[in-house]
Amino acid sequence: MLKRTISLAAAGAALVVASVAGCGTAAQPIQVNLAASEVLAQAAQKTAEVSSYTVDAVANATHPQQGDGRVQGRMLYQKQPLAVDLTLDTVDMGGKSLPGGVRAVLQGDAVYVKVEALKDLVGSTKPWIKVSLAEMGDSAQVNQYLAQIQQFDLANVTKLVTASQDVTSVGNESVNGEDTTHYSGSFPVDAAVQLLPAEEQQQARTNLAELKDVKFDIWVAADGLPRKLALNGQKEGATLDATLFFKDFNKPVTIETPPADQVGELPKGTTN
């Protein structure tokens, strides 16, 4: 039961993480394709330099065996020193949900996880569970949280869409009150994953395992940074439709670990 509960939460995080770009549209002249490709390349370069941001995401999925799912949440990200605060308000998978959602904070040498159902199952009196990063190899299920958090890296998710060979300019649109240019296309998952750092490719393949060719939309503002990414993919009856909104680039963020008196350790024997 414990493993199923943690896996449900991790699967929810995976759906949000997999939401890295959006839907496709009509073809444009080749010179527009070239310009659009250059915009994506520049966006990938600029996002690699971003020090912090906030992302709001929602993902809906269907699976012929596992059923329908929905995940909705937000994340604060700080690059140096690395710190992340991830909140999933809604985690519904295959007719099952996690009451209270999921909260995960990564800071320093530890990740803190708050899942109400997990607390009940391990008999903890503390709302939070702390796992040292040095012990993550011995904490297989909790390690999934860290892997999913890492996949939120804006530079990496933007890099995936640069694998597109058919990206086109759709037009100018407003996103949350900001003027942006809308680009649309698709990318092959295998080729896109190979653009990521070697140590992150396997996790990306896992997140996108149910998809083949991914259709995407990306809305880029005048500063060259994406304000919205949307994804639509399917394979053998499984579908994923997800959208991310990015904001507050390079603004100071405050990511705090939970108070010490609210944190317990994950009991031995519950991590495998």
Plain-language structure description:
Helix content is 28%, strand content 37%. With 272 residues, it is of the alpha+beta class. The protein has one domain (2-265): outer membrane lipoprotein receptor (LolB), chain A, CATH 2.50.20. Strands 1, 2, 3, 4, 5, 6, 7, 8, 9, 10, 11, 12 and 13 form a 13-stranded mixed beta sheet that branches. A hairpin with a 2-residue loop joins β11 and β12. α1 (2-18) packs parallel to α4 and α2 (30-47) runs antiparallel to α5. The longest helix is centred in the N-terminal third of the chain and has 18 residues, at 30-47. 40% of the residues are buried. Residues 1-34 have low confidence and may be disordered.
List keywords for this structure.
outer membrane lipoprotein receptor (LolB), chain A; 13-stranded mixed β-sheet; signal; cell membrane
What would you say about this model in short?
This protein is of the alpha+beta class. The chain has one domain (2-265): Clam (outer membrane lipoprotein receptor (LolB), chain A), CATH 2.50.20.20. It has helices at residues 2-18, 30-47, 116-122, 140-150, 154-161, 189-193, 198-207, and strands spanning 52-62, 69-78, 83-93, 96-97, 102-107, 110-114, 128-132, 168-175, 178-188, 213-221, 226-235, 238-247, 263-265.
Question: Could you outline the blueprint of secondary structure elements for this entry?
Answer:
Blueprint: H1 2-18, H2 30-47, E1 52-62, E2 69-78, E3 83-93, E4 96-97, E5 102-107, E6 110-114, H3 116-122, E7 128-132, H4 140-150, H5 154-161, E8 168-175, E9 178-188, H6 189-193, H7 198-207, E10 213-221, E11 226-235, E12 238-247, E13 263-265
Parallel strand pairs: 7-13
Antiparallel strand pairs: 1-2, 1-12, 2-3, 3-4, 3-5, 5-6, 6-7, 8-9, 9-10, 10-11, 11-12
Helix pairs in contact: 1-4, 2-5
